[in-house]
Structure to design on (335 residues):
């Protein structure tokens, strides 16, 4: 009898050892394969997790995960194979009231080179697949009861670029964002001050330069935004595993709630001619800002450009800087 039991146990153990490896779909249990057609007919495959619990009083939260360039494709599976630590934690800890969307793009989320670190949003055509992600989010909001103040997004590598791009192109949308080892447009930092941001990068990243994240952090801090930055020293490019596994990541993310207040309206009074830095005085610093804009070192806002065009010829040029300097030294009586 003992020999018989031993044989049964041995066969059972061997059958467990010989089981096939779990597929991505098995690992992401409960996420259905879906496809969305955008207004421009772009086809966006995505994985969707819908809670089975009753709709919360304020509606569901929504979390969007953007994959890296290595997971690009149309199989609707590759995007679930890397960097899913945070998704799994959310499903485990916050799954009862959170809709999770994991889209897949066949190309980069942002039309720039990963090695660039930073890029210009104004000079870069939006990715049709990232636009499709936002159209999908809008459709979800029309289909399900969703709390518009609890929308969250995270992404790794090229997905980190995608997160920064969303914050720049769709301001006042997300409550919190976690871009990991990506890069963005520092000149758009003023649009990101009402979203809580946690960002991560490793100093020895050989794929996406750490300088891109550093530039974004510095710009958001200068704009008085809500941002925290963790820089690792020796995790190479794959720092997302450490970042997404942070013990308080889920609790921090879902403690962020966007305020519904509208952004302040622009001033209605025309700006003072020559007061480019908008500090109500005209100084050499204003002339310097004009020259910086002429050579492409800085980008002026519409209001700053109006103040800089002191000769009112419709163009900001070195001639305007010269007039400002002449006014300062008393060569011209007024601007």
């Amino acid at each position: 009898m003992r020999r018989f039991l031993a044989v049964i146990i041995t066969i059972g153990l061997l059958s467990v050892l010989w089981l096939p490896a779990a597929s991505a779909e098995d690992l992401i249990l409960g996420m259905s394969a879906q496809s969305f057609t955008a207004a421009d007919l772009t086809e966006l495959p995505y994985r969707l997790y819908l809670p089975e619990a009753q709709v919360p009083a304020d509606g569901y939260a929504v979390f969007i995960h953007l994959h890296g360039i290595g997971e690009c494709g149309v199989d609707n599976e590759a995007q679930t194979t890397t960097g899913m630590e945070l998704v799994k934690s959310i499903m485990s800890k916050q799954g009862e009231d959170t809709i999770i969307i994991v889209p897949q793009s066949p190309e980069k989320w942002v039309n720039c080179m990963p090695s660039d670190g930073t890029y210009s949003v104004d000079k870069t055509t939006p990715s049709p697949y990232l636009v499709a992600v936002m159209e999908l989010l809008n459709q979800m909001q029309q289909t399900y009861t969703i709390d518009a103040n609890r929308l969250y997004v995270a992404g790794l590598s090229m997905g980190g670029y995608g997160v920064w791009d969303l914050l720049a192109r769709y301001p006042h949308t997300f409550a919190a964002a976690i871009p990991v080892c990506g890069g963005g447009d520092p000149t758009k930092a003023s649009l990101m001050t009402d979203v809580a941001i946690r960002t991560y990068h490793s100093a020895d990243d050989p794929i996406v330069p750490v300088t891109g994240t550093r530039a974004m952090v510095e710009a958001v801090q200068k704009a008085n935004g809500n941002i925290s930055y963790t820089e690792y020293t020796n995790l190479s490019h794959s720092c997302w595993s450490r970042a997404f596994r942070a013990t308080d990541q889920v609790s921090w993310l879902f403690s962020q709630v966007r305020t519904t207040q509208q952004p302040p309206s622009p001033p209605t009074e025309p700006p003072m001619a020559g007061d480019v830095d908008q500090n109500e005085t005209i100084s050499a610093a204003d002339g310097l800002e004009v020259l910086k804009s002429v050579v492409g070192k800085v980008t002026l806002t519409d209001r700053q450009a109006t103040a800089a065009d002191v000769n009112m010829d419709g163009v900001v040029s070195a001639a305007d800087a010269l007039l400002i300097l002449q006014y300062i030294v008393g060569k011209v009586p007024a601007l």
About this structure: The first helix runs from residue 2 to 17. The chain has a mean pLDDT of 87. The chain has eleven helices and eight strands.
